[in-house]
Design a protein that fits this description.
Jelly Rolls, 2 helices, single chain, isomerase, Mannose-6-phosphate isomerase-like protein (Cupin superfamily), 6-stranded antiparallel β-sheet, 43% strand, mainly beta, RmlC_Cupin_sf
Length: 120
């Protein structure tokens, strides 16, 4: 039987530090993980997460909501979209991303993030 669960990102179950420029706080609810990514100015997936993932592009499927800041996502076919505060986003595998501007970007991710930026 399913249980009511409430967790707070101020006390995450796990924190995944990027190589530089940010982190992902992760909580597990209903057997699924939800992340709050804090991407600092200068963050770029290919620089800050690729060394952890070991793949050419991000192969994680993201389903999220941007709380603050701006991010540009570039798909492997060259398609680009920019998202900002208040935007909901679905990002399929095969992309790079980077923070736009001097403000950190905070994104809540409900996607398939079990292995995202996870070391080991």
């Amino acid at each position: 039987m399913a249980q009511l669960e409430v967790k707070n990102f101020q006390r995450p179950d796990e924190t995944r530090e990027f190589e530089h420029n940010g982190k992902a706080d992760v909580v597990t609810l209903g057997g699924r993980q939800v992340a709050r990514g804090t991407f600092e100015p200068g963050w770029r997936w290919s620089k800050d997460v690729r060394p952890i993932a070991g793949t050419e592009r991000c192969e994680t499927s993201h389903l999220g909501f941007c709380v603050s800041g701006r991010m540009r996502v570039t798909m492997s076919d060259g398609t680009e979209k920019e998202l900002g505060a208040g935007d909901a986003v679905a990002i399929p595998p095969g992309h790079d991303a980077e923070v736009v501007g001097d403000e950190e970007c905070v994104l809540i991710d409900f996607g398939e993030i079990a292995g995202y930026a996870k070391r080991g």
